[in-house]
Design a protein that fits this description.
Glycosyltransferase 2-like domain-containing protein; alpha+beta; 4 helices; 10 strands; Spore Coat Polysaccharide Biosynthesis Protein SpsA, Chain A; 4-stranded antiparallel beta sheet
């Protein structure tokens, strides 16, 4: 992430941290580590990270994700730079260059609510339901919505 030069990086961990933060913070001094004392839902962690971010656009990604060094993310950021969009998703590809579904569409199927994964048809699609929370969020728009509901611990219902 640092090599992409996108700005600040915030890493939110806790309460049980499976690795030693001190050597990491010395190795990567530009990363801000937020260490939680109490258990928090994914939604709460994202709310905290977006609130703490200093930029107006915030990329939400998991620590084990590999972000391509192609122009993909740069194109998304350029596209949404002036847009009034809550969340935009980049085209994500797997190791065999197949497009990975990064959008979820809510649908009622046989009377039950289901989330259907969908591949974006273009770079930087707007969505309210990014897969696995991953996308580029407008900080102002996100905060206006109130963020994710901290009372919902099941990510399916967020």
């Amino acid at each position: 992430m640092q090599k992409l030069g996108l700005g600040e990086i915030i890493c939110i961990e806790g309460p049980h941290i499976p690795y030693d933060i001190e050597p990491l913070s010395r190795k990567f001094p530009n990363i801000r580590f937020l260490l939680l004392q109490d258990k928090a839902s994914v939604g709460e962690k994202i709310n905290l990270g977006i609130d703490e971010a200093r930029s107006r656009l915030v990329l939400v990604a998991w620590s084990d994700m590999k972000i391509s060094f192609s122009l993909s993310l740069t194109k998304v950021l350029e596209k949404i730079g002036g847009a009034e969009t809550l969340c935009t998703v980049p085209l994500l590809k797997n190791q065999t260059s197949e497009i990975v579904p990064s959008i979820q569409i809510p649908a009622f199927i046989k009377g039950k609510l289901k989330l259907i994964p969908k591949e974006p048809v273009e770079e930087g699609m707007k969505t309210l339901f990014p897969f696995d929370y991953c996308g580029v969020y407008s900080k102002d728009k996100y905060l206006l919505t109130g963020g994710f509901d901290h009372l919902m611990t099941n990510p399916y219902w967020q």
